[in-house]
Amino acid sequence: MFSFIIRRLLVAVPTVLALITVSFVLMHAAPGGPFTNERNVPEAVMENIEAKYNLDKPLWQQYFIYVGNVAQGDLGPSFRYKDFTVNELIESSFPRSAYIGAWSFLFVMVFGVGLGVLAALKQNRWPDSTVMTAAMTGVVFPNFVMAPLLVLLFAVTLRWLPAGGWEGGQVEYIVMPIIAMATSYIAQVARITRSSMIETLRSPFIRTARAKGIPRYKIVLRHALKPALIPVVSYLGPAFVGIITGSVIIDQVFSTGGIGQHFVNGAINRDYSLILGITILVGILTIMFNAVVDILYTWLDPRVRY
Amino acid sequence: MTLINQQRKIVQRRGPSGSGIRHSVQGVVVLLVTLALAACSEEGEKKAGDEALAAADIRAPEARFQEHPESGERLARKQVLVRGNASEPASLDPQLVEDTVGGAIVVDLFEGLTRSGPDGDTEPALAKSWVSSDNNLTWTFHLREDGRWSDGTGVTAHDFVYGWRRAVDPKVGSNYAYYIESAGVANAGEIIAGEKPSETLGVRALDDFTLEVSLDQPITYLPDMTVHYTMFPAPRQAIEAHGADWTRPGNMVSNGAYLLHTWHLGEKLVAARNPFYREDDQTIIDRVVYVPIESASAELQRYASGELHMTSTVPVSQMARLKKERPAELVMAPSIATYMYTFNVNRPPFDDVRVRRALTYAIDRNIVVSYITRGEQMPAFSLTPPYVSGFDFRQPEYATWSQPERDEAARQELRKAGYTDDNPLEFELLYNTDESHKALAIVISQMWKEKLGASVTISNLEWKTFLSQKQAGNFGMARHGWKGDYNEASTFLTLLTSDSGNNDGGWSNPEYDQLLLEARSSKDPNPYYVRAEEILWQEFPVAPVYFNTTVALVSPMLKGYPENNARNIIYSKDMYITAD
Amino acid sequence: MLFSDKHAGMGELADTLTDDAYTEGRSLWRDARRRFMQHRAAVASLVVLALLLIFAAFGQHLSPWDNESIDWASLPNLDEDGVPSLASQHYFGLDPIGRDLYQRTVQGSRISLMVGVLGALTAVIIGTLYGAISGYVGGRTDAIMMRTLEVLSAFPFMFLVIVLMAVFGRNVLLIFIAIGAVSWLNMARIVRGQTLSLKRKEYIEAAMAVGVHPILIVLRHIVPNVLGVVIVYATLLVPEMILFESFISFLGLGVSEPYTSWGALISEGADAMWTAPWTLIFPMLMLVLTLFCFNFLGDGLRDALDPKDR
Fold first, then answer.
1. pTM
2. SS3 of residue B443 by DSSP
3. B459 - beta bridge partners?
4. Which residues does chain A have within 8 Å of residue C295's beta carbon, measured at their own beta carbons?
C-alpha cells in the first residue's frame, strides 16, 4: 500500500508537467490574448503591457519561466485581476467551493447511495419507481435551471433564504448552493447504485447467502453493498473533483466567490496564468482522487490487485 | 496555509484509509472538517438584525443622521448602500482601471480635478478653477487646499504629477496610457514608446496647489477629459510602501469620499466612509457594498429578494414585465454610447456604398427599440449621441422618412448595385455571445431577409475570438458598440479616422480626417463635427442602430440616483437611503 | 438498438469461433430480442423514441410557421400574444423574440438527439474498450492509459473548443468532435473499475488458462459483463451531452442562430421563466421524455443482454 502511494506520487510529477505543457500550448494557440480589448490600444501601449507580463518573450522562454516559477510554488500574477496573484485567487476561492462541495458530496453519498439501494431492493415496486422518477427528473434539471428556480422560490417568493452571498459560509447562505450542486449528482449516483445493486443481488454468491437463510438486510450490508459500490466509486472519483472545484453557474447565481467562476472567466479572458493555475489544481486533485479510488477498489473487492 | 500544503495534508489523511471502513469514514470526516475549517477560519461574521439589506455589511455603524439635512426626509437607521456591479474589476488602481465596473468603485474611492455633475456636465472637484493660455497649449489648474488622503496627509499637485506619470510609465503598463497621449499632454507618446523618461511628461506642480499641464497640440476639452480616473492623483506614500499590493484593504490610501474596507473576490467589496474626505460631514451613506453579479437575471433576482438597492443592468427579456410591475423603480438614463454595425469596406459586398446604404436604411429602428431592447433607447441615424454635451446634434434626411419610404429606397439602392432575386445579397454578420446582441442580430437580419431578400448568416463568437477577428479585419459585418471616454463629440467621431486603432472596418476619408484635426484646436468645433457627420451620412462606414441608455432598477428607498447622467458615473456620496 | 446490433455481431463472432455451424436454432440475438420484447416499458420507450424521431424529422409540416421568421404582429406584446395556443397555431408559444417555439423545438430536436446519441455512443465504444483494455492488461499499460486519462480530464477543455473553432471555423461536425472528446472519459474509468474486479473471476482466469487471446477475452467476457453499468451510465450521458452542447454553443462553436438545440432553448427559457414559463417548459419536457425513454430502453437492453441470465 505504502509503495503504491509513493509510486503514484512520483508519477504525478510527469503527469502534471504533461498537463501543463499541453494546456500551455493550446492556450496560446487560442485567438486573442489576455490584453485583447474592445478598445484597441496603440501598439506602444500594448508592448509595454506585454513586457510587464513577459508576454513579449518567445513562447518557449515563457514556458520555462512559468514551469520554473510553478516548481517554487508561484503560479504567477493574474492577467485579468491585476491586483492579485493566482495563488491568492485560488486561496480565496477554493476553500469556499470546497466547503460547498464537501457538503454536497456528503449528501450525494448518503442520498444517492441510500436511494439507489432502496430502489434496488424494491425493484419494480412503488419505492423504486418513485425514486427513479425523481432521479431522472433530477438529472435533467441542470444547475442553470435549478439555481434560479431555487432563488425564485426561497429568496424572492418565500424570503426564507438570502438570494446570494457567502458571509463566512453561514448555513442560510450555503443551503441553496449545496442543493443546486448536489441534485443532479444524487440522481446519477442513485441510478448507478440501483443498477449495480440489482446486478450484484443476482450473482451466485448472494443466492447462496440467501439460500443459507441469512437475513436480507445483512446480505445487503455485509455482502452486496461492497461489490455494488465499485461503479459508484469509479463515477464519484472524478465527480468529486468536479464537485469540490465548484461550478460557474453556482458562483454566478449565488455570488459565493468560489473557484468555479474562474474556469469560465479565465478562459474567456485568456487569463493564462489563472487558467494554468486552476488546471494544475484540478490535475493534482484528479490524480489524488484517482489514487484514492484505486485504493478503494482493493478494499471493495479484495481480489483486485495492481 | 498555502494550497499545496493543504493538498498534501489531504493526501496524508486519505492515504491509509483503504484499510477498513472505519478508517475510511474517519478519512472522509477529517477531510470534510479540514475543508470546513479552511473555509470558516477565513472570516467569521455574524448575521443579526432584521434588515435584509444591512445584512450585506452588518458591522456597519448606525447612521449619523436621522433626517436628511436639507430635505428633512427620515433616513434609514443604517446607511449601507448595496450596489449590483456586473463583475470583478480588473484593478482598483486608478491608473490601471480599465472597465466600467472598476470605474464605478474608483470614482467613490478617489477624486480627480473635475467630476461629472448630475446631468453629465463637467464640474470642479479638487480643482477649484482652471485657465488655459497660449492658445490652449497650456492649462493651469488651481487646486483646493482641503483635499486629504485617507491617512490624513494633504492632496497636492505633486500627487497628480505622480499619478499622470504612472499612467504613461511603461513599467506600470497601463491600458489607458494612450488616454494621456490622446489628451495631447507633451511627451506622452515618447514616454510610452520608451524614448523619454516619465519625468519629461508635460505636467508639473508649480506649487503644492497649482498644476500646470503643457500640451503638444492644442485641445479645448482637457477639463472634460480629467473626469476620467486615469487622470486621478495617486498616493505615492502607499504605492512606495506596498508596491503591487497597495490596492488591498488596509494598504490602500485614497482621497475620495470612501476608503477600501474589505474585498472578498467574487462575493463583495465594501467601501467605508473616509473620515478625512473634505466633505465628509455631508456624506450620508456610511458603507457601500459592491456585489459583482455577472448574470443579469441573477442580479435581478437579488434585487427582487430585497438584497440590492440598485442593479447595474436589467435583462432585456424582463423589460416588458418590469415596465408593468415596477415602473417607478426602472430607471432609463441616456448614455453616451452608440450601438451599430460596422461594415468591412474593403470586402465585397460592402465595398459598394449602395449596399451599405441599403442595409442601413432597411433597419426598422422603431421595432428594435420598442420591442427588443425596450429601454427607451433612441433610434440612431448618425454616430454621435445627442446627449453629448455641447454637441450640435443633427440628423440626416433619411431619418425623417417613414420606414416604408426607407425600405423602398433600400430596395432601389440594392437593385442599382446589381442584386436581384436571382442574385441575392449574401453576407455574414458577426456578434459576440450575449443575449441582447443575439436578439438584435436575429431581428435585424430577419428584416434584411424579408425586405431585401438578402441571405444573411449570423454567427456568434466567444468574446476574444470575436475581438481578434474583428480587429484583424477578418469579417464582413460586425456588431460594434462605442461608449464615450469623455463627454465631447470627438470621442465618437475620432473612432472613424484613418489612424484610429478602433476603425476595424477600414473606412478612410482624407477630408474627414482633416476636419477632426482642425476641430481639436478650434474655439467652436461644432461646424467641423457637423460636416464630419454629414460625410458619414453619405458614406455609411457604419450602420447606426440606436443611442444607448443605461437601464437599472433603483429601490424607492434610494434617493439621489443620477437619472440624467449620460456618462453613467454614479457617486455613492450623492445618494442616501430613506427609512421607508 | 445499436448496442444490441453490436452485441449480435459479437455473439456471431463467438459462434463462428466455437462452432463450425454458422446457423443455430436459437441464436443469442434472438434470445435477447425475445427477452427485450417482454420488457413492456422498454418497448413502449422504443415506440416513443421512434415518435420523437418522426417528430424531429417531419414535425415541421404540422405548423404553418418556420423556425426563423418573427411573428411581427405578436412582437409588441409577447407576454400575452406569445402564449401557446392552438388558435394562433403557435402550439408551444413564441420565444423571447417572437419566433415560433414549436418549430424551433422540432429543429432543436434534430441537433440534440444527434448530440445525445453520438455522445453516448462515443462513450460506449471508446470508453468501454479503453477502460476494459486498461483494466485487463494492467501494469504499466494501465498506468500509462490512466495517467493519460487524468491529463485529459484535468485539461482546460474550453481552450480545445476555442482553438478548434479558430482553426476550422464554424462547422456542425466540430460539435460532435468536441462532445466525443469529453464524453468517454468517465466511462473509461467506470469500465476499468469493473474490469479490475471481473479480471479475478474464475471464468476469466479459466479463459486465460486455456490460452484464449487477450483481445477475445476482453471482447467476449469482459465487455458483455460490464454492459449493465455501461448502459446505465450511457443513458445518463444522453441528457448530460444534450445540455453540454448549449455550453459549447455559448463559446460559439455549437449550432448558430437561427438553428438551435434543446440545450440552447432551455438556457434561454431559464432566463425568461418569470415571464414566459412555456419557453422553459416545452424543451424541458422533451428532454425529460427522452431521458425516460433512454432509461427504460437501457433497462430493457440490460436485462435482455445480461449474460448471467442466459
1. 0.87
2. helix
3. B430
4. 132, 136, 191
Instruction: Check if the beta carbon of residue A257 is closer than 8 Å to that of residue C213.
Output: no
Minimal CA–CA distance to A146: which of C283, C266, B266? C266
Q: Which three cell numbers stand for residue B497?
A: 479616422
Edge-to-edge strand ranges of the sheet holding B268-273: B80-85, B287-292, B268-273, B258-264
The residue in chain B having the minimum alpha-carbon distance to the alpha carbon of residue C271 is B297
CA A195/CA A132 separation, integer angstroms: 11
Cα C186 from Cα C184, distance rounded (Å)? 6
Q: Which of A49, A44, A50 is nearest to B194 (CA)?
A: A44
Percent of chain A with pLDDT over 90: 30
Q: CA nearest C78: which of A144, B367, B448?
A: B367
Farthest CA pair distance, chain C: 77
Residue C131, judged by CB atoms within 10 A of its CB (0-12, 13-18, 19+), counts as buried
Q: Which C-chain residues 62-91 have CB contacts (< 8 A) with chain A? A: none
pLDDT average, residue stretch B237-262: 93
What is the Cα gyration radius of chain B? 27
Instruction: Say how many CB pairs under 8 Å bridge B and C.
Output: 69
Instruction: State the cell numbers at C189.
Output: 474509468
Q: Could you check whether the bond before residue C258 is cis, i.e. omega within 30 degrees of 0?
A: yes
Rounded to whole angstroms, the Cα distance separating A264 from A279 reads: 12
Rg over CA atoms, chain A: 23
Cβ atoms within 10 Å, residue A16 = 20
pLDDT in tens, A176-194: 999 999 988 898 899 889 8
Over the range A110-144, which residues count as b (16 or more CB within 10 Å of their CB) and which as e?
Answer: ebbbebbbbbbbeeeeeebeebbebbbebbbbbbb
Question: Which of B216, A301, B386, B104 is CA-nearest to residue C197?
Answer: A301
Which residues of chain A lie closer than 8 angstroms to C196, CB-CB?
297, 301, 304
Q: Which candidate, B236, B229, B272, B273, places its Cα nearest to that of B253?
A: B236
State whether B192 and A261 contact (CB < 8 Å).
Answer: no
Hey, which residues 44-63 in chain A have their CB within 8 Å of chain C? none
Phi and psi at B402, nearest 5°, equal -80, 160
Q: Is the pLDDT of residue B37 over 50?
A: no
- Which of A131, A144, A234, A253 to probe the C interface (max C CBs under 10 A)? A234
C115 within 8 A of C237, measured Cβ to Cβ: no
pLDDT in tens, B207-249: 999 999 999 988 888 999 999 999 999 999 999 999 889 999 9
Cell output for A202: 443476482
Residues in chain B: 580
Burial code (b: 16+ CB inside 10 Å, e: under 16) for B426-446 equals ebbbbbbbbbbbbbbbbbbbb
Identify whether the C-beta of residue C112 lies closer than 8 Å to the C-beta of residue C294. Answer: no
SS3 B333: strand
Q: Side chain identity at B230, as an amino acid letter? A: T
Q: SS3 for chain C, per residue?
A: CHHHHHHHHHHHHHHHHHCCCCCCCCCHHHHHHHHHHHCHHHHHHHHHHHHHHHHHHHHHHHCCCCCCCECCCCHHHHHHHCCCECCCCECCCECCCCEEHHHHHHHHHHHHHHHHHHHHHHHHHHHHHHHHHHHHHCHHHHHHHHHHHHHHHHCCHHHHHHHHHHHHCCCHHHHHHHHHHHHHHHHHHHHHHHHHHHCCCHHHHHHHHHCCCHHHHHHHHHHHHHHHHHHHHHHHHHHHHHHHHHHHHHCCCCCCCCCCCHHHHHHHHHHHCCCCCHHHHHHHHHHHHHHHHHHHHHHHHHHHHCHHHC
For C84, the grid coordinates are: 401557446
- 427504460: which residue's cell? C296
- In the prediction, which pLDDT does C308 show? 59
From A240's Cα to the closest Cα of chain B, the distance in A is 12
